[in-house]
Design a protein that fits this description.
The chain is an all-alpha fold. It contains ten helices and no strands.
Length: about 240
């Protein structure tokens, strides 16, 4: 019971420090940060809409029919089992990534780095916007080539891959925060290599499970990278001011 109360007090203290740090930020810094995020999200949404329009036209023309054979060939050639892919897929699971984001945001808030904590929280939350937009505007069916589609969630459409978008954004932000706080280039490189490996594992797992078409994965990677770039630009612009 005492441990529970300690956890609650720590959470409240993190929130208090985050709020205090946010209020202490100069107004021009916050405006620059929010403006960059808003403009960047508009660009990411425009890219999402462009992908949807092009994708729908290609599908209607039969140009994407190659994906069925490509997915089967990948599954046949992949040196990992279905069960192993399930474990690898956890790196792109929203609940797992949210836990990591909340922990590192709390650590940043505790250290007085409010803007970095907010970039984690706001950035990862907003990462849902492009892939949910894709699911709503393009009712693309999920593949059923692998285990009769057992790994595909019912009711959710296929384009783009939400797992990949979230993995790119979360791993990318954490890698940047790690690499930007160390003077060692080898450690900074290690941070980005770990992030790249984490994203690659999610990509391979989603394909092995047959949860997405290859173009869903590719679009998710591009959209995630685009939003990650916006977040890092916004943070650098704010911190430099």
């Amino acid at each position: 019971m005492a441990e529970g109360w300690v956890s609650v007090r720590l959470l409240r203290e993190c929130i208090r420090r985050l709020n205090r740090g946010y209020r202490a930020l100069p107004a021009p810094v916050l405006r620059r940060w929010w403006r960059t995020l808003a403009i960047g999200m508009a660009g990411v949404l425009a890219l999402t809409l462009a992908f949807i329009v092009v994708g729908q036209r290609l599908q209607a023309a039969g140009t994407l029919d190659w994906e069925r054979g490509a997915l089967r060939a990948f599954v046949d050639a992949a040196p990992l089992s279905f069960n192993t892919a399930i474990w690898m897929d956890a790196g792109g699971n929203g609940l797992v990534l949210w836990l990591a984001v909340l922990v590192f945001a709390a650590l940043a808030a505790w250290q007085g780095l409010a803007l970095r904590a907010l970039t984690l929280l706001v950035g990862f939350t907003a990462a849902y916007v492009p892939f949910v937009t894709g699911w709503v505007l393009w009712a693309r069916d999920r593949p059923v080539e692998v285990e009769r589609g057992i790994a595909t969630p019912g009711g959710l459409h296929s384009f783009p891959s939400g797992h990949v978008v979230q993995a790119v954004v979360a791993f990318g932000i954490l890698a940047y925060l790690w690499s930007s706080t160390t003077p060692k280039r080898s450690e900074a490189l290690l941070a980005w290599l770990i992030a790249a490996a984490g994203v690659a594992a999610v990509v391979v797992a989603r394909l092995r499970l047959g949860a997405h078409w290859p173009t869903d994965i590719a679009a998710g990677a591009v959209l995630g990278a685009a939003w990650l770039a916006v977040l890092l630009i916004a943070l650098r612009r704010a911190e430099s001011g």
